[in-house]
Amino acid sequence: MTTKMFGTKVQRVEDQRLLRGQGRYVDDVGVGAFPGMLHAAVLRSPHAHARIVDIDVADVLDVEGVHAVWTHEDLADAMAEPLPLLIPHDALTHGRTQYALARDEVNYVGEAIAFVVADDRYLAEDAVERIRVTYDFLPAVVGIEAARAATHLVHDDVPGNVGARLDQHVGDAPAAVAAAPHRLELDLTIERSACTPLEGRGTVARWDPDTSRLQVWTSTQTSTGVRAAVAAKLGLDLGQVDVITPDVGGGFGVKINHPWPEELLVPLAAKALGRPVKFTEDRREHFISSAHERGQVHHVEVGFDDDGRLLGLDVEFWHDHGAYSPYGLIVPIITSTQLLGPYKPDNYRVRFESLYTNTVIVTPYRGAGRPQGCYVMERTMDAIAAHLGKDRAEVRAANFIQPDEFPYDHQMVFQDGRPLIYDSGDYPTMLEKIKALVGWDDFETVRAEAAAEGRRLGIGLACYVEGTGVGPYEGAHVHIETSGRVKVATGLTSQGQGHQTVFAQLVADVLGVPFEDVDVVTGDTRRMPYAVGTFASRAAVMSGSAIHLAATRAKEKVLRIAADALEADEDDLELVDGEVRVKGAPGSSMSLGTVAVLSNPLRYAFDEASKSATQFSVGDPGRPPVAEDDEPGLEGKDFYSPERSTFASGMHAAIVETDPVTAEVRILQYAVVHDCGHIINPMIVEGQIHGGVAQGIGGALYERMVYDASGQLLNASFMDFLMPYVTEVPDGIDIDHLETPSPLNPLGLKGAGEAGVIPSSAVFAAAIEDAEGFPVTAMPISPSELFELRRQHASQPASQGPAPEEQS
Q1: What is the mean pLDDT of the chain?
Q2: Is the sign of the CA dihedral 544, 545, 548, 549 positive or negative?
Q3: How far is CA 58 from the centre of its chain?
Q4: Which 8-state DSSP code applies to residue 602?
Q5: Of the candidates 613, 640, 667, which is a domain's last residue?
Q6: Which residues, at least 6 apart from 795, have a Cβ–Cβ distance to it below 8 Å?
Q7: What global pTM score does this model have?
Q8: Which spans are transmembrane here (predicted)?
Q9: Which ranges of 702-759 would DSSP assign to H, the alpha helix?
Q10: How far apart are CA 572 and CA 306, in angstroms?
Q11: In this predicted structure, what is the pLDDT of residue 2?
């Protein structure tokens, strides 16, 4: 590929504006510009499980400055029905979604019950406090163990609290495990965590009665999805609704779920009251009423030979999807399929149950089921190595899919409903790279030197494969202005990934224009009404490919028009520095702006430039100014829809030190080797990795959602929900890249956005286990939990040993 911008480290064009405080977020919308803006607040359930006997709003209705109060009884038609089950699946036999406002029953602390609109947020919140709700309390089901026991039910019509059961298998794993020379069993747990972006959810809506149009601004990862939901629920035509996504202060998955109740209630209120309405979520609301993820419990049975090769792998796990299941089975399906990583067990069976609990709903969180799968597979690899007394890297290498085996068909179905076929990769080379980067072969010398000083060091390694670029499609529109500037629109949204930079790089290459002359807009349904959204590491693969195709279409028209105007063959033209030039003829050229003028034959001349494009000055008088197969303007529009997902991969390694007294974990070195196919902008990819590693450190060592038995979230604030500070994240992360291009898209791209976070729990569990000498089977792990593990291990009879027990 011959390019000028592709593969170049270009500074992000977004940064100066954002770093200078010039970002424009949902809460900034309408400030000083929308006269009469009203503000909303939500009454949320303080109980995890209860029937609603009565809701008394009498004390609110006469409060000066309160304009409206809604409960479920006030909703009608589609608004009174449950929120959509976004991704149905045959295995989701008991899918359940909540109402915009609770009807009859609440099923988690934080569920919306009433919606108040007032002159300002302070008054709205005061009014919410005046609402009186009478409850009939019900037993709460909290955690996977309680859900499986099914002593109590979250939903009366869901037997055993089981929303779904799914089984996929290749070969006969139970028989292969039973016949294997070596067998192990492991029980592994990952607890709940959450996205917790800097900006919570927020929505603003304005109804224009003159045009019968609704404008909605919302902090979302899918503006087109919100548009469709609002139109459907409010009984509007799709063309009556515009959804605009301004700057988004982080999403990480929580903002891909839609519609949130407020995304419907705010437009409803704006239309009913005839005034703009705003809702901005506060931090506690985000903890108790948005979404969580991660919580799973796994049981693994594995059989292997003397070299550590997998002969059979049998996995059963239980997934906590909270009180409702609006996002279907995406997370556990990803876990069940991505658990395989870069390996190829001869026989694999995976079964899971997705369970209801009286806790906040579960939707994807950066990694989306992959961190759990990676953790389980990599803990299994470490257990095999420990059992055989082999090097952990050697056991992994014995199980790798080889470079000449791609495309590799796992004979399973991935989250997109397509075959789980890896498109490309080179795992053996990647392993050698990560070993060199972290000093794997020399670590025992480093450990011994530290031990001589009374220090405990451990090293961990984790490998993963990440399905990226899931469909069904994304589109793009590229428009070359008469000024020569290029306007690009794509429907997916941005949450800080650098889309405006990388997409401009792609267009600059195709059209031969200066990078600075390309303007990119994302997440605005007025500019691109058909799109899917930003999630699953899909932006570069999906929108990047669509933008490349659309720019190529625009280029074809540029060459066709310029060739006619310059009286040259299209093959003799080149696009350089915003001009179309005849190769080898320096004086024969025209600017892209001039080509744009010529592309739009006019009846009227508005300025000097347009004089050359009137009906009397353009083209052959013997043919129409606009051909039958053409249209005015210098534009290109295209869509990219892949046959299946691409599969990125990576390996992380870490060296940690565990304090012998306090049990604190200090990260001495962190190394990453990453393969996302061809790299558009290495600086942005590395930034994504750095951010993901920081987030992964939080998930492995600090962050968890702690519920009590009654379903109360005990750490719903940043005072109690622990996160890593800059002092807990390594100053430098050693990064190396491997590029095995995907054959599935025109640019050879794979996704990169979630890579940094996927193997974190696995790599830290391995490193801590290596430092301490006993198994680590539950994550995240805090100093107090490590201290307790030490105590338990010290009290074990020496004959038991730290390694998992082999079955007879």
Answers
A1: 94
A2: negative
A3: 43
A4: B
A5: 640
A6: none
A7: 0.95
A8: none
A9: none
A10: 64
A11: 42
- What whole-number distance in Å separates Cα of residue 366 and Cα of residue 756? 9
Determine the Cα–Cα distance for residues 100 and 113; give it in Å rounded to an integer: 8
Q: Are residues 631 and 672 in the same domain?
A: no
Q: Are residues 450 and 517 both part of a single domain?
A: no
Q: Name 210's bridge partners.
A: none
Domain assignment of residue 96, given as a range: 15-28+37-138+201-280
pLDDT in tens, 295-330: 999 999 999 999 999 999 999 999 999 999 999 999
Same domain, 117 and 251: yes
Strands 66-70 and 646-658, sheet pairing: unpaired
Q: Output 726 or 424, whichever has higher pLDDT.
A: 424
pLDDT value, residue 803: 44
Query: In 3-state terms, what secondary structure has residue 441?
Result: helix
End position of a domain, from candidates 640, 665, 694: 640
| Integer Cα distance of 771 and 789 in angstroms | 13
Nearest-10 crossing angle of helices 392-399, 370-388: 110
Residues contacting residue 147 through CB under 8 Å, at least 6 positions apart:
141, 154, 161, 318, 320, 355, 356, 357
For the cut 60, the answer to whether the pLDDT of residue 805 exceeds it is: no
Burial class of residue 620 (count of CB atoms within 10 Å of its CB; 0-12, 13-18, 19+): exposed
Q: Are residues 452 and 495 in the same domain?
A: no
CA angle at 375 for the pair 644 and 200, rounded to the nearest 5°: 75
DSSP 171: S
Residue whose token pair is 């990599």: 378
CA 740 to chain CA centroid, nearest Å: 23
Tokens encoding 264: 């419907």
Half-sphere exposure in the Cβ direction for 243 (13 Å, CA): 31
At residue 131, what is the residue type? I
Encoding tokens for residue 651?
């390996």
In a domain, 346, yes or no: no
Helix orientation angle between 223-234 and 261-273, rounded to the nearest 10 degrees? 50
Residue pair 488/478 in contact by the 8 Å Cβ criterion: yes
Residue 672 token pair: 């990453």
